Structures are given as structure tokens and as C-alpha cells.
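The instructor's notes for this session suggest beginning with a concrete chain rather than abstract definitions. Hand out the sequence below and ask the class to guess, before any prediction is shown, which regions might be ordered.
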Amino acid sequence: MLETTRTYVARITNHSQVRDDLDQCGFAASKLWNVGRYYIQDRWDEDGEIPDEAELKSELKDHERYSDLHSQSSQRVLEELAEAFTGWYNSDDGNNPPGYRKRGDDHPRSTVTWKQKGIKHDDKHGQVRLSKGFNLKASRSDFILAEYETRPDVVVENIQQVRAVYNGDCWELHLVCKKAIPVEDAPGEKTAGIDLGISNYLAIDYEDGRSELYPGNTLKEDKHYFTREQYQTEGQNGPSKRAVRARRSLSRRKDHFLHTLSKHIVQRCVEAGVETIAVGDLSDIRDDDGESRNWGASGNKKLHGWEFNRFTNLLEYKAEEHGILVDRVDEENTSKTCSCCGQIRNSNRVERGLYVCSSCGTTMNADVNGAVNIRRKITQSLPTGDMSNGWLAQPGVFLFDRESGRFTPREHGDCKP
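After discussion, reveal the predicted structure:
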């Protein structure tokens, strides 16, 4: 059995009774976020340093706004703020750091997270009791008693976290539960390598010589369209309702795309008898010897919306269910190295998507070449046949079909290396 977590979305059946209390907590979370944001700005202006989550918690634990929520809920707000700054890419093309949560004089309803000490679950009656902070207890009660309803096939137990999320019309609960699931034996002993690219979202190479591309055009189109919707409908006092809906639509589409992609790739690996998947570790792609790396105006924009770590996390837990190990490996020089002769040279990548080795003359798809080199990090199997033809030069291409919500293959001849 494998211990993992699953998140279930639940409808609050006594919403009219708990709405005001949840509103108070949502407003309080926004206020605490703004207090933390002000503290970061002050430190930033003073010495050019951005405090981490440990400093935020230590310095703000005695602040009045910290006591509006349960202590663990307040900690989570500050953790999210620190994570937002950590993930922010500070480039020269006008990207802004995380801002304040405020619309004119009003604070929006922020997501509130309760951890185990702030939760009491009554699974028999479908209720969760959520603790409130000291400042909010005096006005009504010490806790929020929310009654919930999930899908009939969902069994809610071993709750680790509860998140109250305002969806624009009402509050809903996201129940994060620990769950034991059966783990299958690995479907085979083969390996696969995945190269996470910015333009071609992903390339995968299998040990048997097959390779595939998964372009991220759909994700980029959605981001362009919904980002434009946000800015065109931005109000003077902050985001309009239409802008907020655009953000939520983009988030839902991105979630569906990433889940569908990771599930599809795991299924392909099961069919190919893969035991281990090597994925390039891109955790330091934004850094250059401690400084922010500049990828150019276009590269910075693509990188800013590139959720490679989240995709890898999804791939890991979906692969585990089938007994497949996901191994994050150092991808240094994998895009520069010829997978045929081993020559390392920047100029070999003559165009986006085209790799031509000046030493051995091999011509192949650049993203697949990187995937082959990443796979070689965990296996030393050598290529067979002419690598300038077939799968490495013209890999199979899977495109995302919006109507079916699935990835479907494209004809081989339509793919250009």
C-alpha cells in the first residue's frame, strides 16, 4: 500500500449559517497577507533583502491581525506569501512582485487553511469543526461548524487539512485526506527520459527507441487569452468580477491540462513497460550563481508561467500507483550534448527544435535529444539504428483535444524536427 493524499471538493450544506463566519476568516486572511506584504516591503527598502517564512512568522506572531485566525491558519497565510515571493521571477521586462490583497477600501475573501490542530471531524454526520482566532471568537462562537457533502463515491477520513475557498458565489471546502492505495508491481524494467521545455512543453524518450512530443500550445493560448481578459477588465479599485472569473477559468484549465498530461504519460509508460522515469531537475533554472537569470523578454514571460515543479509532483504520485519511480536528475548540458557521439557544443542547436551535430552529422529533434540524454543519466543503454531518421528526427506528437479533454496522436508526417 502507498500512503498519499487526495483533495476532495465538498459543498457546504449549511452555507447560510456559516457564511458570515467564513467571510470574517477570509477577510482576516487578506488583512494578514497585507501586513506581511508591508513588512517585506519595509525590509526590502531598508536592506534589499526579502525575509523568508521563518522570519515572517517570528516577527508577526504578536501582531493583532495574526490572532484573527487560528495560529496554524495564520502561519499558512505567511507561508503562502513567502512562497509567492520565492516563485516570483524578478526580470527586467516589467514583471511585478506579489501585491496587496485589496480592492479600494475592501479586502477580498482569501482562501483559509486549517491544519490538523484546528480541525475536528465528525465523519458520521458529515461535519467539520474549524477553529477561529482569538479576536474572532468573542463576536460569535469559538468555532465554525460546517456541514458538507461530497460525491457519493468519496469516503472522507484521515483529514490532514481543510481549505475554505470562495469560488465567486459561495464558499466550498477542499478536504485534504491521507489515503492508502494499492501499489501495482512495476510494469517492466525499462526506462524513459523526460525533457521539460518551454516551447515544446515536454519531450519523452523510451528505452525501446520511441519518442514523443507534447506541445504546450493549448496552455499558452489559454494564458494569453485569459491574461488579456484580466487586464482589459481591471477596475480602478482592483480586479473586477470579470477579471476574477478570468483568473479562475485559467486556473481550472491549467489544472485540467497538467492532470491530463501527467496521467496520459504515466499510462503510456505503463504500456511501454517502464520501471523508472528520469525527469530533468529544473529547481535552479531561475538562478544564476545566486542572481536572477535573464532569459530575455520572451523567455522570461514563458518561464514565469511554467509550472514544471507542479507537473513533476503530479507525475510522481500518479506513477507511484503503478509502481513506477520518478527520478529527478541533473540536466546540465543535456540540451547541448549529442546523444549519438557525446560532443558538447551550444552551436549544435541551430534552431528551436532542431539539433545538428557538427562532429558526427546527426540531425534530430532537439527536445528529444535532451530527453535521450536525461534518460542516459539512469541507464547506459546505447541507441540502435540511424538516429537521424525515425523517432528521434520525427517523434510522435500528441496534441490536446479541447472537446474530449484528452491527448490524441497526430500523424508522423506532420511533425517537423
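Then share the key points. The first strand starts at residue 2 and ends at 12. The radius of gyration is 24 Å.
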